[in-house]
Structure to design on (290 residues):
C-alpha cells in the first residue's frame, strides 16, 4: 500500500488515546522485521532512521531509506518513514526527497532559548516542505554513550508551563517529553513520572512522544499510553533481540559461516519483539499502574 504519513498515524492514535509504535532501523533486516511484526499484529507502524544510523551507513541516507520505502509500499499494514534525532540541517533537508513524511529535530541539548529558535527555524522549513515535525524539551539522557541526567538536574524533566510556551513558539507538531526514560537502556527498569505526564498532557494539545522506551517495563508503557503518550520510540530492544539470537545461534553452530543463517534468526527475533511491543501498547492499564 502507499506510504502512510507519521502525522496521520500519530494524530489518529492521539485521538483514540492509543499509541503508534515507532522502531529505529539500521539494516535491511530491521526493516523487514519491523514490518513482519506489524503485519502479525495487524497494526500500523513507523520506521525510524536516526542521524546516528545514517552516520553508520557511511553518512548516506538514501540506501537505507530507499529500501525502507520499497518494503513499506509492499506491506499489508500502513507504514510511515520518520527521520529521527536530526541535528544536522543538511540531513534535515534531505528528508523530503528520501521518502520521509516527518522528522524529529533534536536541539534539546541547547539552552532553552537556543532550542526554541533552532526548532522554530527547522519547523518553518519542514512545514514549507509538507513535513510533520517532532521536537524535544527536557533531555532524555543516554544518547551517544552519555550517562543519563540526574532526575533532579535542571532540564532533566520537561516542565509543563515551559512546554506550552515552547510548542506555541516553535509550532512543533508533537513533543518528545522527558519523564524518566533513558536512551539505550538494556534493562527494563526505568521508572516514569506518570504524575508529570498527566500535567504535560493537560497542558498541551499536540501529541506526546516517549523516547527511550526499550528501558520501560510493560506496565509503565501501558500507563504511559493511558496517560497521553501517542508515539512510542523503540530501538535498543530490537538490537538486543537480534544480537541475543545471533549470539545463541553461533554458540550452537560454531561452524556457521553463511550470514543468511544467523541473520534470519536475528530477523525473526526482532519481528517477535516488534509484535510483542505492539501488543503491550494495545493493552488496557491495570488499576495499580494508572
Amino acid at each position: 500500500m502507499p506510504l502512510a504519513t507519521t502525522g496521520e498515524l500519530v494524530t489518529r492514535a492521539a485521538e483514540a488515546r492509543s499509541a503508534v509504535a515507532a522502531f529505529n532501523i539500521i539494516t535491511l533486516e530491521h526493516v523487514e522485521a519491523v514490518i513482519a511484526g506489524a503485519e502479525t499484529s495487524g497494526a500500523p507502524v513507523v520506521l525510524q532512521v536516526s542521524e546516528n544510523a545514517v552516520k553508520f551507513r557511511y553518512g548516506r541516507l538514501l540506501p537505507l531509506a530507499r529500501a525502507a520505502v520499497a518494503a513499506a509500499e509492499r506491506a499489508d499494514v500502513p507504514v510511515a518513514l520518520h527521520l529521527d534525532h536530526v541535528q544536522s540541517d543538511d540531513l534535515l533537508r534531505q528528508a523530503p526527497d528520501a521518502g520521509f513524511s516527518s522528522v524529529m529535530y533534536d536541539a534539546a541539548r541547547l539552552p532553552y532559548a537556543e532550542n526554541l529558535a533552532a526548532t522554530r527555524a527547522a519547523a518553518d522549513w519542514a512545514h514549507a516542505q509538507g513535513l510533520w515535525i517532532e521536537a524535544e524539551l527536557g533531555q532524555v539522557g543516554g544518547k551517544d554513550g552519555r550517562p543519563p541526567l540526574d532526575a533532579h538536574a535542571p532540564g532533566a524533566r520537561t516542565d509543563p508551563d515551559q512546554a506550552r510556551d515552547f510548542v506555541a513558539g516553535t509550532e512543533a507538531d508533537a513533543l518528545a517529553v522527558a519523564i524518566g526514560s533513558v536512551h539505550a537502556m538494556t534493562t527494563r527498569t526505568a521508572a516514569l513520572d506518570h504524575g508529570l505526564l498527566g500535567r504535560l498532557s493537560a497542558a498541551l494539545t499536540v501529541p506526546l512522544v516517549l523516547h527511550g522506551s526499550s528501558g520501560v517495563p510493560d506496565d509503565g508503557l501501558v500507563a504511559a499510553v493511558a496517560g497521553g503518550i501517542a508515539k512510542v520510540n523503540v530501538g535498543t530492544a530490537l538490537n538486543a533481540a537480534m544480537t541475543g539470537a545471533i549470539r545463541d545461534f553461533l554458540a550452537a553452530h560454531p561452524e556457521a559461516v553463511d550470514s543468511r543463517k544467523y541473520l534470519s534468526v536475528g530477523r525473526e527475533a526482532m519481528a517477535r519483539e516488534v509484535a510483542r511491543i505492539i501488543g503491550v501498547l494495545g493493552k488496557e492499564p491495570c488499576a495499580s499502574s494508572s
In short: The chain has one domain: 6-289. The chain has a mean pLDDT of 91.
